[in-house]
Amino acid sequence: MDAAFIAKCADPSLNPAIVEQFVSAAGSDDPLAVTVKSGGRLVLIPKPRSPDEALEVVRSNVGQAVVRVGITQFPAGVGVSDASELQTSMFDACENLRTGTGLFAKAARIVTKWYGHPTNKELLPQMLDDTIYAWKTGTFEGDNIFRAEDPGGPTFFGKASGDAKPAAKPSNPVSADEVAPQSGEPDTVTGAGIRIDLSRIGGQK
What we know:
TraH_2, disordered C terminus, 32% helix, TraH, plasmid
């Protein structure tokens, strides 16, 4: 993933190498990717060929299934009262990265707080793995990470949430009512057990 693209679009509280690992492990290479799961099972859908087609797929399934979109595969408003509020901008790679990494950073702060805000950076691989797993399943320690409040504080071992200039407000923010409870099973599309190369995190080469 291009460094300039990450710098422009990703949440500034996340290390660029972590952004790359997150998208590689839990996201998609296709900005138009739409994943629909109902009852923990993958629903086969036609591959969208345009943002308009992708949006139509989302609107057809939102409120009835867990719908994830774009390069970060963030939840696209499951349970919204009016699907017409959803827009094609969620399929813009930059907008999707901004929204997705913002939500992932919040999940990281939830995990970091649960670990007791450690200072031992050797815990980073385990903390990152727990956060990616929580992203895929939608839950951490029994709580829905997308509904949970942002606890603030440090994001892993990086900046505290209040120290970084916030990214622009996403065009399709995910509210508490937009995300349905999700299965504890790993996402079928992204898969489980993906090996994560952390060699570039923490300045190592």
